[in-house]
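User: For my dataset I need records formatted as: sequence, then structure tokens, nothing else. Please produce one.
Assistant:
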Amino acid sequence: MCSQPDAKSPLLPPKLITQRLILRPPTVADAEWIFRGYAGDSESVRYLTFRPHANASTVRTFLEELLAAHDAGERVRFAYVLALRDAEEGAPGVGMIDLHWDGPSSLGASLGYVLATPHRGKGYMTEAGRALVEAALATEALWRVWAVADTENVASHRTLERIGMSYEGTLRRFIVHPNVQSTPRDVYLYARVRSS
């Protein structure tokens, strides 16, 4: 995914390195790590828009389709796999974070992420999110990065606040989280904006 965005995309680095993490685009070779780390775990994906993957093969197919779409020039999410830095590039099963920009007419981008349950409570997503949001807002194209979190996902609310985002309101019946219920749920909207 997006190691080299097209010329009209906000230019984000192909890799971000924080104190403890390496954030890099995923590859098909990451499928097994991603499945074991979080994609196959019902608790890790509780507040996401997909059900847990049944096996690494379904994760591999997802990655192949996503990478093919990017190679074909389709606008896809700028995603980064989180790897623990102390293991060089380590096992990329810690989590994933992405930024979605809707194109040249959009002044903002949406942030999304997932963190493997065993790695929660260690500040990894705050660290990754802060790095990605700051990189995004340092580009000329973006003035705003926003994210939504299920009203019951208190840990995500805290993470977004630690990243420097502010609560902007509640979006009613906004998204389906199939691991919670089959009908749309309310979410809180958070954002961080560039001042100048």
